Amino acid sequence: MTAVGLRERKKQRTRDALVDAALDLFLTKGYEATTIDQIAAEVEVSPRTFFRYFASKEDVALSLTADEQRVLLAELVARPESESPFTALCQAMRSLLKMLRKTDDAETGRYLRCQKVVHSTPALLAGAMRLIKENERRLVAEVARRLGTDPWDLQPKFIVAVFLSVALACFDERTQDPVVLARRLEDLLTLTERSLCPGWDLPAFSAQTAGRPAEPAATTG
Fold first, then answer.
1. What is residue 142's three-state secondary structure?
2. In angstroms, rounded to a whole number, what is the distance separating the alpha carbons of residues 14 and 123?
3. Residue 215 φ/ψ, nearest 5 degrees
4. What is the pLDDT of residues 151-188, one digit of tens each?
5. Cα-based distances in Å from 12 to 25, 33, 42, 204
6. CB of 24 closer than 8 Å to CB of 42
């Protein structure tokens, strides 16, 4: 293994250790009562080292949520151009779900603690929703690119809004186990795909009719 690879693994271990220490302290002492100095001390690093990985307490508490949002966007961008926008979004989510299903015991425990902390702390729950809303704009931009339209148009916004409404329906304090969550979300994605009319997420007009004046409405009498 190269020196670069070893460095990256060491950095990932330190990052994971900081996340684990922070989550444990948040659960035992409370989010507000926990300080960055205490988190750093649990891992035997300096606060300066903490700030190399995270900008704040909220940043470390929401690190898994931020990671999920980055992965979702990256998976969407990687989907084939031949897929319709909603299909691409669903397939990107399925790739994320596959990662959740493959988590080891340490990752699963970290995920469960993170969910418990976030759902029991109003400020963090609001922060998680902010991250999702920020990523929503990026998802809309990618969907708009696929449609060849402007991100401010209603169609890409509507497509992403439908997708996120489906996804958020599964995310609550009662469904924290990543395997259970993945199964429920997969079922909901399948239900949604079966319920929507084929082609609903494609441009309403073909390239041949785009820009053509609308036909006058028929009159009676």
1. helix
2. 26
3. -65, 140
4. 999 999 999 999 999 888 876 656 567 777 788 888 88
5. 20, 26, 17, 46
6. yes
